[in-house]
Structures are given as structure tokens and as C-alpha cells.
Design a protein that fits this description.
466 residues, 6-stranded antiparallel beta sheet, 6 strands, 36% helix
Length: 466
Amino acid sequence: MGGSLKKYIFSALVIGALALAGCSNDNVGNAPTDQNVTKKNQVSEEEASLDKIDPKEDKKLLQSKTVYYQTPKDQAPKVHKDAENIVKKIAKKKKVNVKPNLNDARYRDFIYNVATDLSSLDKDQQKKVANFAKYVDKYENKLKNKRIQELLAKVKAGKKLTGKERAELDSLLPIKGGRKIAFQKQPTKDQLDKKQPQPQPKPEPNPKGSLNGGEKNGFNPGDRDHHGNRRGGWDGWDHGTHRGSDNRGDGNNRGDDNNNRNNPDQNGNGNQQDQNDQQGNQSGNNQGQQTGGEDNQQPTPQGSYDPIKARDYAYKWWNKRNNEQYGYYSRVMGGCYDCWYDCTNFVSQAIKEGGIKEQRTGGTYWYYSDEKPAYAWGVANSFYKHFQTRAKQVRQLFDLEVGDVVNADFDHDGDIEHSAIVTKVTANDVYVTQHTTDKKDAPLSAWFNAGYDVYGWKMQTANGDN
């Protein structure tokens, strides 16, 4: 998510480019054309494959009822004036030069930006900003409806959709089906039992007849169960993280103080466990090695997805961009560092690091390419549709585990606007790390409090291991 929630750049209509890594769909005229910064008329593997589909398949689009998005009937109600003022103050504080004008895509984008940072607002502000973002989403729906109508009109005229147009149309159409996550204030007994660490065998003494400090409690400090939780934590529900993750020795600490104030669980009750960890790590490791090295050295749990690797990647890059390894979006946007809104691109990077396999065939695509990534790699609506075909959905809030992914639909219209990755779980809340805005361990409960539809994916099931 790095940046605001929506980037509606209707590529084929305006600039003939692929969806530009928005958290949702593309946005009219917001970026330089693909032709200016990449090869002219470049086509992705996904688009090339879809281009080979029999033209008769297009007619099936006309046989099924097309659902269009709801649009507002009038101008923004006066009730949103307070939200406009909140957005204005935040823009001034962040030194973002945007003026209140809903016809300005940059202003709409900044509203979405604020709407994904609800944990920094009080409850009254959260409600006002969330309602304003929902209205703005409906305001942009007329752009989506127009493009859907244009593509279907081409089919009605007997013309074949190109692979690029087919991919774009699929990214625009609402999701179908799906199970929303049920909100919980606290986990059930069954959920708590599942999180309890399994009893560990009594450790053998070392050759000198004494135990290493970390083994006094019958477990190694770095050991974790298959949920990504530390074994033998002080309360049996050790969040899938441990102190030190905020200080990884890589200069990646910006903003942690704010997150710590928002999330008291991040600092509370951890001192004794920290002491145990330090006792069990007397081999001269520095802090960065203690926080990341232990997890990465462990075998991949439960098949081919390692949630700890995914989480650690999210922690490393939560407030910066890995443009050297994933440079497509920066290049398409003219070489900027972080001027696009890559919530889904960020999540895709993290779960790929955790071992989720790319998919380049079979009719549904999820992969990164410097030439052009698949729509599902960087567009939240397409991400949802792709993983709907390969991962199990989460039923309740506390069924989520570290390494799982969540999506949000702001205004219940079947258009997914946001993506984040679960990086911490406590008995009080589930926490996500995201771009748009850049947040580390932000409480997921804020999404429910704002009235968003929230969906979750069990990433352990996405490779077909379970």
C-alpha cells in the first residue's frame, strides 16, 4: 500500500498502459504514459495470453448481467465539511499540496490516504473521514462505469477485446461471492487453544552438563510453532513477533514511536521474555541478527509458505520502497521514489518473499515482471479475484495469523480498495503492516470500526499445500 488507496488510471482508455499499481483500479490521467518511460505498446504475459482467447468467449460477457457501481445522486453533503477540514489539516501537516476539489484525482487520492490511517485519528474523526472516503469512492464509480460500458459496447459491436482490454475489464468489474470476516472483540476459547504452543521436549544438557540460557524453559528463543508464534511465550499468545523487530539495525525505525503509542501491546508485558531471549543468545549476535536471523534459518513451516519471512520483509520495507528489485511502478511513474499507491504491490512482494508461487498460466495470473506485472500483483480488486481461486478465506478476526493477507471494501460495492499483511496477533487485536499510508502493526479493528467490509486469505493454503 504505499500511498493512497486508489489510483484509477484507466490505462487503455487514456494512456494505453497497464494498471499502475494502485491499491485498487486505475485513475484517469494521473501519470506519464507507459510509452514515455517503457517500450511502446508493451504487452504483459497476462495480456498476451488473454489475447489468444476465442472471440466467441467475449459474447458470454453480454449474456451475464453486468453489475455497475452505485454513484452519488448529488454533490457532497454538508456533513462532509468536517472531514474536509480534517483532511486539509493533515495535508498541511504532511506538507502535501492539495486543494479541496473532488474533480482533482490527487485530492481524491489523499482522502483515501487518510482513510487508511484511521488509527492516528480519534473515534469521531475516524467516522467522519471513513464516511467521506466512501462518498468519494462512489464519486469515482462513474468513471469505472463509463469504462465498463465502453468495453462492453465494443463487444456488442462484434469486435474482439484485446488481451489488454480483457484484463482491464476484469480488474474493473465487482467481485462475486466471498466471505466477509466477522469482527470479534476477543478470541474464542477454541481460537485461543489453537494458538497455544505445543509442549516441547525436555532439552538435553550440553556437553558441559549445563543448559544454555534460552533452553532453561524447554525451548529455544527463536523457535516458533506453525502459526508463526513464538513457542513458550509468556502468555502462550506471542503475537508472531518479538521485541527488536522495530529495531532491525537497518535504519528502518521512522514512525515507530507513533505505532508504539497506538499499540500498547507492542511494548507491554514483554520485558521478561526479552530477558529470556537475551540469556539464550550469548553468542555475540548483534541486534539485527537476533531479530531476523533465527526465523530465516528455520525450515519453512506447513508446506511452502513461511509467514515469518513474509512478515520480516514487510517490517524491513514498511516505510520505504524496494525499487531496485521491483522497479516497474517507479519507472512507469517517471522515475519517482514513492509517488504511486502500492498497497497491493507491497503485499505481493512480502508474500512472494514468504514463498507464494507466482502464477503465469491457467487463466488467472499473479506475478511480477519488469516488463509488466500481472494486474493481480498491484491492483487490489484483481488480487482478491486471483486468490479467491487459490486460498481459503478467513471466517473470523482471530482466525487470522501472521503472514495472512486482508483486503478492504470501503463502501460495500464489491470493489476492493485496499490490501495489507498481518504482522502481529495478540489476544486484543490483529495488526497489519501496509503502504497507504505507510504503517507498521496498525490495528485491524480500526477497519471494522470504520464500517469497511474486510476479507482475509489463509496464505498457508495458497500454494495447494493444504
